[in-house]
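ARCHIVE CARD
CATEGORY: sequence design from structure
SOURCE FIELD: tokenized fold
FIELD CONTENT:
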């Protein structure tokens, strides 16, 4: 075992580790930052509203009828053969359209029977005779009355049904015309949306790859700022220590400079004190001797000069030339602080120079990563075949949109015309019924009209309605069949096969729709020769094996699964099974892109050997200052000496006494001498004051030196020790700081890359390959074509066929009613008319019958009218007479 460390050694190791912990670069996570990736615009689609409303039961009834007419499934074989050979299999087509052939036969029968039946009924109407009913046939009158009322009621019901059918026919015919142009527009728009959306997938993938520039710029900025971060981290980590060290150095330098300056002032002041002391001492001795000679005068009054002596002996102040000579030059100490600051703040520049090669290598790896991402994205499955199929459909829609719109206008015009004819027939029936129906309930209601004009008008209207029905019935039924044929096939081939999913199965059999999914992009094949770093090449091996597997496995998407998946919010990537050709997880695996960056970042180092915050000459100057010996001066005795009075007697006061004594009469003989000595005393007093000033100055200098002498050695030792420790810590901790900074850069780079790859995953699955628009567009096609056009079209032939069906009983009931309304012609002369008693009784009887709603023939009503006219004429003759 090695030698044991002392307690001081363990403490040094602990403090070094603690310093390393303090100097660790704290990596600020940017997880909360949101990188401004480009927001990919999703295709906006809005569902087309169905305008079925309250007519949906009518539409459903038409669909039920079509189910019975054409119950056959979707004719995949017929359509496939037609698309491949452009020829139709007539026998299969006839079997498929068997229901419509039966409807055609029924229409032909209707077309032939209506004219024949109309002719027969017309012949019977015009050649029939009305049977007279006499009074003895009253037992059968009630039955005939109820029969006529029943026929009239049936005719009313038929007219109501015809009017209802016509109103519905007008409504749905108008809806077909109103929805045709918008429907074609919605179909073309939906095809354009699908084509544009599929085409934009490649463009959006390129945009996604271009967005790599955002994390690349962020990572590049982190890498390029690595040298600045390292330098700034070193500065921030040691700034406090260096400031404290330079503060201590500044204190030591201030002590040294202060000591040097005070020593110089000390010597200067000492010289002045000693020089003035000699002058003062000689002057006072001369003054004392002259004043003493004046004191010998017996008649004079002169102050006693015995106290005129100096007290402080400034010759005892020691010299400090030896200590001043031991002091370092001030010029060598003055620039140490600035030099230390410059040395410390030059560290970032050294870091930049040393990490520049590593930064260049990291940028190269980052560029290679971008190239690999771009080349891998070229393997994304292509949808060109699907785009071409949609484009062909869109071209077909655009080519046939105008003809379809024109033929629909023709259909609308013809339908409107025939519906107007049907409306005229119904109006004729209703008008005739309005005129003839009251006769059945109140036979005398038209008694004021002669020659039964209203009855003849009703009969004429019935005849016109019947004739129009026979004439236009063929056009009615022909229009019904034509609309039934086209509308029914449109429903069964398109709408019903869509709702039952048979159309999806037919599209699945078309191999050319999804053929491009099984082809690898040529751009990727051409990029297989690009070379990157070894780390990137190793990460491409899974993709190569996957490409080999894709050659033997073909994608077979299901259009039904695609549609229902898109409708439920599933991505097109999964609904088309693109994962069989493109491994999205391997493409978005961040480790294969980060390995090269991590390996390169580990080579980042910074060496600060030779860095010294305090140069050798500065260290030697501080050591010289420490050894100058200013602490060996006896400051206490020196301060006591400087505090001693300069002279024993106040010379200013003594001079004033001499002036006073010169004014005494007894001293008239020595008056001039006293005044002269007073002036001399005042001069010496100025020297005393200067000595006092110099002594006070000297005391301050001594006190300053005394203060510095107590701390200067400790300050120098502390400064040298702290600077040494800081320099050692810089050399030891910089590698840790560089490692932490490089690790932090990689962590931030990994966060940026992971955030980008997560955004790529979300963008591809839910932005680029979001196919909600596909389901909405297909639903819009179904709504615009089937619900808004085909359903009203089928409802139109149903309503018109309804009218054709009820037109038959309407004709029959109209002929019967016209026959019952036909009056019996009677010719009676007014001059020879005699009102017999029996006839008067019959009139009363008939009146009672009318009141009780019993049956009365038209002949009896006519006779009653003649009788009433005869009575009126007789009353007029009596009035004239």
């Amino acid at each position: 075992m090695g030698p044991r460390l002392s307690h001081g050694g363990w403490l040094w190791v602990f403090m070094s580790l603690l310093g390393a912990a303090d100097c660790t670069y704290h990596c600020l996570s940017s997880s909360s930052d949101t990188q401004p990736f480009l927001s990919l615009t999703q295709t906006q689609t809005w569902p087309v509203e169905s305008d079925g409303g309250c007519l949906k039961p009518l539409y459903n009834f038409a669909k039920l009828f079509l189910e019975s007419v054409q119950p056959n499934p979707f004719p995949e074989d017929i359509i496939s053969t037609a698309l491949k050979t452009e020829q139709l299999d007539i026998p299969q087509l006839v079997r498929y359209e068997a229901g419509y052939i039966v409807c055609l036969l029924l229409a032909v029968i209707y077309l032939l029977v209506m004219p024949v039946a109309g002719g027969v009924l017309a012949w019977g109407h015009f050649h029939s005779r009305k049977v007279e009913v006499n009074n003895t046939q009253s037992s059968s009158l009630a039955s005939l009355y109820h029969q006529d009322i029943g026929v009239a009621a049936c005719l009313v019901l038929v007219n109501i049904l015809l009017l209802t059918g016509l109103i519905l026919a007008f409504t749905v015919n108008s809806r077909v015309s109103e929805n045709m142009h918008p429907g074609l527009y919605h179909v073309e728009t939906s095809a354009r949306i699908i084509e544009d959306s599929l085409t934009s997938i490649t463009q959006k993938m390129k945009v996604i790859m271009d967005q790599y520039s955002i994390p690349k710029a962020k990572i590049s900025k982190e890498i390029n700022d690595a040298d600045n971060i390292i330098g700034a981290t070193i500065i921030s980590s040691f700034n406090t220590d260096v400031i404290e060290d330079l503060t201590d150095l500044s204190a030591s330098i201030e002590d040294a400079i202060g000591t040097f300056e005070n020593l110089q002032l000390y010597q200067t002041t000492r010289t002045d004190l000693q020089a003035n002391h000699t002058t003062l001492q000689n002057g006072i001795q001369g003054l004392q001797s002259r004043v003493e000679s004046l004191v010998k005068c017996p008649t004079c009054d002169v102050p006693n000069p015995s106290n005129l002596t100096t007290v402080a002996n400034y010759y005892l102040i020691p010299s400090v030339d030896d200590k001043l000579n031991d002091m370092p030059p001030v010029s060598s100490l003055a620039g140490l602080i600035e030099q230390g600051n410059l040395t410390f703040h030059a560290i970032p520049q050294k870091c930049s120079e040393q990490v520049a090669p590593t930064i260049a290598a990291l940028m190269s790896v980052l560029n290679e990563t971008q190239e690999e991402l771009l080349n891998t994205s070229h393997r994304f499955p292509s949808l060109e075949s699907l785009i071409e199929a949609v484009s062909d459909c869109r071209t077909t829609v655009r080519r046939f949109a105008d003809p379809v719109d024109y033929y629909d206008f023709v259909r609308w015009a013809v339908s409107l015309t025939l519906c107007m004819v049907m409306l005229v027939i119904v109006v004729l029936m209703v008008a005739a019924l309005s005129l003839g129906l009251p006769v059945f309930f109140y036979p005398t209601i038209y008694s004021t009209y002669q020659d039964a004009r209203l009855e003849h008008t009703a009969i004429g209207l019935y005849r016109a309605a019947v004739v129009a029905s026979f004439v236009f019935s063929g056009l009615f039924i022909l229009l019904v069949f034509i609309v039934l044929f086209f509308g029914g096939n449109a429903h069964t081939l398109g709408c019903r096969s869509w709702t039952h999913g048979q159309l999806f199965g037919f599209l699945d059999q078309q191999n050319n729709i999804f053929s491009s999914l099984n082809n690898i992009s040529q751009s990727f094949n051409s990029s297989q020769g690009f070379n990157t770093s070894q780390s990137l090449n190793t990460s491409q091996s899974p993709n190569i094996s996957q490409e080999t597997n894709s050659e033997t496995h073909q994608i077979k998407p299901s259009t039904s699964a695609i549609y229902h998946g898109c409708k439920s919010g599933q991505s097109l990537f999964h609904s088309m099974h693109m994962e069989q050709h493109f491994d999205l997880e391997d493409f978005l695996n961040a480790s294969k892109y980060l390995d090269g960056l991590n390996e390169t970042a580990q080579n980042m180092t910074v060496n600060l050997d030779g860095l010294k915050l305090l140069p050798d000459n500065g260290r030697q100057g501080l050591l010289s200052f420490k050894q100058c010996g200013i602490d060996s001066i006896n400051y206490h005795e020196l301060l006591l000496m400087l505090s001693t009075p300069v002279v024993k007697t106040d010379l200013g006061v003594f001079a004033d006494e001499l002036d006073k004594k010169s004014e005494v009469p007894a001293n008239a003989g020595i008056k001039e001498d006293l005044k002269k000595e007073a002036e001399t005393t005042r001069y010496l007093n100025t020297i005393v004051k200067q000595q006092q000033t110099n002594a006070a100055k000297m005391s301050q200098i001594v006190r300053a030196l005394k203060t510095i002498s107590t701390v200067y050695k400790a300050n120098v030792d502390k400064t040298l020790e702290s600077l040494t420790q800081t320099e050692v810590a810089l050399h030891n901790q910089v590698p840790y700081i560089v490692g932490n900074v490089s690790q932090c850069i990689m962590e931030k780079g990994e966060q940026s890359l992971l955030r980008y790859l997560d955004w790529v995953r979300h963008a591809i699955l839910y932005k680029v390959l979001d196919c909600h628009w596909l389901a909405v567009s297909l639903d819009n096609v179904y709504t615009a074509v089937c619900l808004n056009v085909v359903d009203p079209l089928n409802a139109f032939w149903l309503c018109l066929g309804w009218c054709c069906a009820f037109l038959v009983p309407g004709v029959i009931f109209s002929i019967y009613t016209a026959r019952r309304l036909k009056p019996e012609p009677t010719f009676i002369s007014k001059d020879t008319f005699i009102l017999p008693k029996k006839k008067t009784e019959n009139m009363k009887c008939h009146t009672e019958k009318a009141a009780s709603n019993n049956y009365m023939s038209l002949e009896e009503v006519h006779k009653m009218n003649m009788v009433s006219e005869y009575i009126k004429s007789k009353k007029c003759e009596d009035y004239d007479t």
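CARD ANNOTATION: The mean pLDDT is 78. The chain has three domains: 53-124+145-189+383-439+473-512+775-821, 211-381+521-770, 837-880.
SHELF: design records, drawer C
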